Amino acid sequence: MNLGKFMSQFYRTTFQSLFISGYRRLWLSDIALNWAEFIEMIVLSWYILQETGSPTLLGLYGALRFTGTLVAPFFGVFVDRFGRRKTLFFSRISFVVLSSSILLFSIIGYLSIIPILLISSMVGLSRSLDMIARQSVIPEIVGIERITNGVALSRIGRDITQITGPIFGGLILESMGLSFSYIAVVAFYVYSLFLVLSISGIPNQVAETKLSAWRNLKDGLIYVKRNELVFALLVVAFVVNLTAFPFNNASLVVLAKEVINTSASGLGWLMGCYSFGALLGSLLIGARNSDIETGKITFVAAIGWHIGIIVMSKITWFTPSLPVLALTGMMQSLSMVTMAMMILKFVTPEMRGRVLGLRQLSVYGLPLGLLCTGFISEEYGVTVSLVTSGILGLILLAFVAVKWPRIIKQPLKPLE
């Protein structure tokens, strides 16, 4: 096969879902949403650390960004019962309103830590609701045969914005200040809403049930309990949120400022390099077919992710940290994309919203991890925090491998 044919086939295989109009608009809308989110995260993280000098408060801010995980199972029931289109519209509107509030506080000179924390907790609710609605519509738009590609491309889009968003956010914060940075945040949220409103193919079917929200939630829990593989995946999701995700959500900010001694724009480059590795991981998965050994990739990549965090604890210079961050980001992407593929593949359509809600509940490990790593960083230093998180994660993953060995052996094929 010559190079031209190879590249043509690679393009058609890797980006096949983008040829579907509804998915393409959803993908672009998510790009805009993620740009806003990552600019917002780096701007507010740097602001909090500069104003207070407290890794604990930074960890609290990070934890509040995921408050929606507490009620995520009910959000899953909400999505199933009230429709995915309406839910997605509502969540995107809420992002515009909440980000505009912070912009207004900044313009009139009343911005402080308290309103940032309060609004961030409300953003956390919207983020969980939006993620459940967004993930539940992907199989409906692209078809069950393109789930692998659709999920991978969704992750690729997020990884692209994770590369460029923090870099842009750091540069604009350093050169123009917080208020101007938030004008960009609001503009991206508005554009994301506009693109979602322009999609005509988002399904809005509702689950035909007269059962209460509690009963629907109970049915979701029973479904997961009976499905050993899905249950094990949710346990792994909780572990990595507890021990690995705090690294790029807060600890890297502290590491950049207190150990590597770089600026806000330098932090943006560090986060961008981490996300570049994640993008490479998503591209690798997106270009493969559905016969890959997803369970093994999910688990082995999670181990590599934690090893990368431990290695980063020993690095004090800017340049050597870049390749390590890229490899660590790649491990994160390989683990998370394959996990999402397996959950969407092995859960029946009528239970998808409820199971994705439970999947979001596993993200509650992240705010717990952020609070713990913030406290350890403040009391004992960020190096101790990173080593502790990495070792704890490896121990918990070893327990999962012993308890549920099937997760390592499962390919992306329907369960028997």
Which descriptors would you attach to this protein?
mainly alpha; 0% strand; globular; 18 helices; 416 residues
What is shown here, in short?
With about 425 residues, the chain is mostly helical.
Radius of gyration: 20 Å
> What is the helix tally?
18
Helix content class:
over 70%
The coarse overall form would be globular
What sequence of helices (H) and strands (E) makes up the elements?
HHHHHHHHHHHHHHHHHH
Average pLDDT score: 82
What gap, in angstroms, lies between the N and C termini?
Answer: 37 Å
Strand content: under 5%
Tell me the number of strands. 0
Question: Which structural class do you get from the secondary structure elements?
Answer: mainly alpha
User: Any low-confidence stretches, pLDDT <50, length ≥5?
Assistant: none
User: Sheet bearing the most strands, described?
Assistant: none
